[in-house]
Amino acid sequence: MTTANQTTITVAAIVNAPVEKVWQYWTLPEHITQWCQASPDWHAPHAESDLRPGGKFVTTMAAKDGSVSFDFQGTYTEVQAPNVLAYNIVDGRRVHITFESKGDTTEITETFDPEGTNPLEMQRGGWQAILDNFKQYAESL
């Protein structure tokens, strides 16, 4: 999918954890499966990540009742541990994430190209919910 307009969506959170820990929890499959869902009735039963420019990733996102699932996948375009991660989703949309160290906390800013089906606010809400789940997970360990 090529985004005709130049609209992007940004979500952000401040995580009460140092940037190195945040980076590991964001990028390692064993952690991704613990936080990558937008609501309690979904989960991420599988994740793979070849964390390098040109490397592929896939996260299976599924309803816990088994009614539906899909693979969120793409290719990394930029990997600058522990501060920048960028990738292209398989449909061509771009995602750029920064992890800014603030001492014992980390500010995550995630900017992405929206898809053309759902309202922008719905997309922002879903991505923010996943980011909020990440924050809760990273702060609990």
TrEMBL record:
<dbReference type="InterPro" id="IPR013538">
    <property type="entry name" value="ASHA1/2-like_C"/>
</dbReference>
<feature type="domain" description="Activator of Hsp90 ATPase homologue 1/2-like C-terminal">
    <location>
        <begin position="16"/>
        <end position="139"/>
    </location>
</feature>
<dbReference type="Pfam" id="PF08327">
    <property type="entry name" value="AHSA1"/>
</dbReference>
<comment type="similarity">
    <text>Belongs to the AHA1 family.</text>
</comment>
<protein>
    <submittedName>
        <fullName>Polyketide cyclase</fullName>
    </submittedName>
</protein>
<dbReference type="InterPro" id="IPR023393">
    <property type="entry name" value="START-like_dom_sf"/>
</dbReference>
